[in-house]
Every structure is written in structure tokens, then in C-alpha cells.
Amino acid sequence: xxxxxxxxxxYRCFYKLQPQLTRSIYxxxxxxxxxxxxxxxxxxxxxxxLEELFSSLDKIxxxxxxxxxxxxxxxGSPEDDVRSSLAPxxxxxxxxxxxxxxxxxxxxxxxxxxxxVGRHRIAELQQxxxxxxxxxx
Length: 137
Prior knowledge:
The chain is mostly helical. Helix content is 86%, strand content 0%. One of its GO terms (biological process) is cell division.
């Protein structure tokens, strides 16, 4: 898009008077434009830390090559997307809560049995106390 012929077409009158100078101006213009563009690109890279981001992107791409399953893509329905991403977490959490409930129920039944054994022992001791008290009287 920045060919010499287009440049000449824009400055036709000047080219007719001094073609050599026009070529020199064109060459300077192109070199300064290239230098300016390279400088701008470097500033953008430095400001956004793009080199590091690009290298991390390259690593992600390399890691993705080894995957066999396709990457996740949104379905177009936000509700379904949220549900599909939350469902595994919620199922895992539910499993954890059920396991914790089962453990607590088992502990509670063991404690309840210990309480019953203790009550039975107290009842036996009360009967023994009453029997000894009656024997003493």
C-alpha cells in the first residue's frame, strides 16, 4: 500500500520537477515510518508485558496439543454453562456432606449405646444400693 508508484502519484508535480529527490524523500519516509512502527510496537510490548504473555500463551498451546478431548466451549445458554461447571463441584460437595453425615450418625449411635450401657449400669448400681440398704436396715 505504500509503493513508490503510489507515492509518485500523490506528488506528481514534484516528481516531474525532481525525480531523484522524490525517490530520496520516499526512501527516507519509508525508513522513518518503519522505525516509528517498530518503536510503537516495542512500546506496546513493554507496556503490556506482551512478550511474557505470548510465551505463556505458547506454553498453553503446546500443552493443549497433548490433550485428546476437545476444549470447553460455551453452549450459548449461560444457565446451562453455569450448571455444567457447578454440577461436578456440587456433586462432590454433596458426597462429602453425606460421608460426614454418615460418620456423625455412626458416632451418635456409638455414643447412644454407651449412654444406654451407662444407664443400665446406673440402674444395676441403684438396685445394688437399695438391696444393701434394705439388708443393712
